[in-house]
């Protein structure tokens, strides 16, 4: 995962069409590697890996500062307007194995919109999809990324008020992943200070796993 002065974290973004997966990936990388725009159909049709430059001032270990590199795998949405569930699953599984097989996956980020309610069916489908990809320990290696948090804030919801008013479906999902969640302000996400805050939270989640990565072995297609 790291040499003597550098650490790399491997992330994958998963979610429905128009939740902001690709935009979130760009925010984490501090770049515009992934195509992201409003569209009446699913924009992303294949997986794409983005790599950040060396990021300083984020993490220290054993009293020494480490340079951080972030690798993000952008994926087709599920459900997808042009691909079946099996096509999306097999595409993502193959890309995970290709890009992260040696080091493993540190976190899967399930991207949801903070300004839209999470329905039970949507949650169930997302959980099943992630389970098929990551296997039985998926909860330890999954966090929820709530995009468009700026719209929720404009509606008068602080983070605390939002969670107090959230549906039982969303709260149950957050509980299942040990409350690993991050609110992403789409207006501020390109600002370095905001990006650094998000990266520190992600590193804290990874630290909870003792910096372990999920081995990417072949999982059953059941």
TrEMBL record:
Q: Does the keyword rRNA-binding apply?
A: no
Organism superkingdom: Eukaryota
Q: Which residues form the AIG1-type G domain?
A: 6-222
Q: Name one GO molecular function term.
A: GTP binding
Keyword annotations: GTP-binding, Nucleotide-binding
The record's comment on protein family reads: Belongs to the TRAFAC class TrmE-Era-EngA-EngB-Septin-like GTPase superfamily. AIG1/Toc34/Toc159-like paraseptin GTPase family. IAN subfamily.
State the name under which the record lists this protein: GTPase IMAP family member GIMD1
This protein's species is Haliaeetus albicilla (White-tailed sea-eagle)
- What is the name of the gene encoding this protein? Gimd1
